Amino acid sequence: SDLDLAIRGGTVITASDTIRCDVGIRNGRVALLAEAITDAKKTIDASGLYVMPGGIDSHVHLDQDSGPDITMADGFETGSRSAAAGGNTTIIPFALQVKGSSLRGCVSDYHAKAEGKSLIDYGFHLIVSDPTPTVLNQELPALFADGCTSFKVFMTYDDLVLNDRQLLEVFSVARREQALVMVHAEGYDTIKFMTETLEAAGKTAPYYHGVSRPEVIEREASHRAISHAELIDVPIMIVHVSGREAMEQIRWAKQRGLKVYAETCPQYITLTADDMKGANMDMSGAKYVCSPPPRDTDSQKAIWEGLSQGVFHTFSSDHCPFFYDSPRGKLSPKGQTSFKYVPNGIPGVETRMPILWSEGVAKGRISANEFVALTSTNHAKIYGLYPKKGTIAVGSDADIVLWDPNRKEVLRQEILHHGSDYTPWEGFAVTGYPVMTIARGRVIVEDGKVLGKPGDGQFLKRDKSPYAVPAGA
Ligand code: DUC
Ligand code: ZN
Ligand code: ZN
Cα(291) to centroid of ligand 2, in Å? Predict the structure, then answer.
């Protein structure tokens, strides 16, 4: 036959089905699903393995402008390599508008940063930090037409925060253009008050990062974002939900028939606020500083409830990598004077899928099909990539991960491919690991060895999100 490749003997798992069949690939796409494919040019033996859609990580920061003092630890080459090694075939990083700059100009910069670098396919979400009339009425519609059909807004951070009026204005544009809005829901003034109060009391260690932004602050901002979205009648995605408080707001919104979607991340099912204590409240706690911060074991339970009950549509890494042992990273001179200067974010694009499989599927909390939905299919559907990406079906891109459900691995810095000099999951034991990543029909990772090349990945012009259609109120 004219099939380039057959994956034989495995069990195909999609978001909806578990089927014993072979997968035939031609010209980078799935061409045939059949009981036995014996005539392809090349064959991969997948017996004993699961054959799943490659991971799509829709929340990744690469080469992102992080201010004058800080350098991000991954650009598009190391970041995408790490993603591929962790079983991913698509990433959607952010193109950040620097306040005072043209959004379109900033997006061109990110295209230049990514060009020829990524090993896997990628899209861009926009970050809108300065919604001027030109941005709202000209730049955003033009960028949506260019395939960046989602954007993130922040309710906190000096350099990014939008006030309520600005949120309403960008929500209105999203409604009109059918763009999907992602919301970072933490309150600016409340965090500032807490931060200044803690600093005045001499409480400046990394641990106090968590104290400065408790769940109630995330809950309030989530409720406010939901209310604004209801007023405008626009769907929203609340990203990186950390615990029960915000989650209950989302559940409440859903029960009211509002189109409110939610994402959570590995840190909220595995880490706690105590990790930020480090050894005796020293700077090593900075390795776990991210926003929203990790909470407690009760919050982890709540997140599992949300994952198994469908409150969360996506499980993303929020890969936001910084160096630990560096003056331009977690140990920056300013960062050592106060938690408020410690860069917020942790690396995790490579460990996302193993952690969810091990803690979720291997422990019986979610099914393998739910795993696929949470790590791939729902990302494709929500961000306008389905069914090109996110499933194994005739005509879809042959983006596939071969998964060994029994393989035991201890997560350690030495086995990872990211640019950071540490992993927050050092020593964390997992059961289940990717053994091969196939992107558009080509083997790009085999047994931890990366075969893909920078530039293999293509920019994805994404469709408008079907999830961004207003309810019509
Ligand atoms: N928000 C993110 O999405 N990532 C890292 C830090 C932050 O505040
Ligand atoms: Zn955020
Ligand atoms: Zn993020």
Answer: 7
Give 112's contacts (C-beta < 8 A, 6+ positions apart).
none
- Quickly tell me which residue has 């209801």 as its tokens: 230
**Ligand approaching nearest to the C-alpha of 60:** 3
Q: Which atom of ligand 1 lies closest to the CA of 186?
A: 8
Half-sphere exposure of 343 (CA within 13 A, CB side): 29
Residue 395's CB is within 10 A of a number of other CB atoms, namely: 10
Per-residue pLDDT tens for 248-303?
A: 999 999 999 999 999 999 999 999 999 999 999 999 999 999 999 999 999 999 99
3-state class (DSSP) for residue 369: helix
Location of structure tokens 């392809």? 40
Here the tokens at position 26 are 């031609």
Beta bridge partners of 112: none
Q: Token pair 């339970």 is at which residue?
A: 301
Q: What is the model's pTM? A: 0.98
Cα Rg of the chain, angstroms: 21
DSSP assignment, residue 161?
B
* N-term to C-term CA, the chain: 53
Cα-to-centroid distance, 46 and ligand 3 (Å)? 34
Residues with C-beta atoms within 5 A of ion ligand 2: 184
Q: Is the pLDDT of residue 473 over 80?
A: no
Q: How far, in Å, CA of 372 to CA of 378, rounded?
A: 8
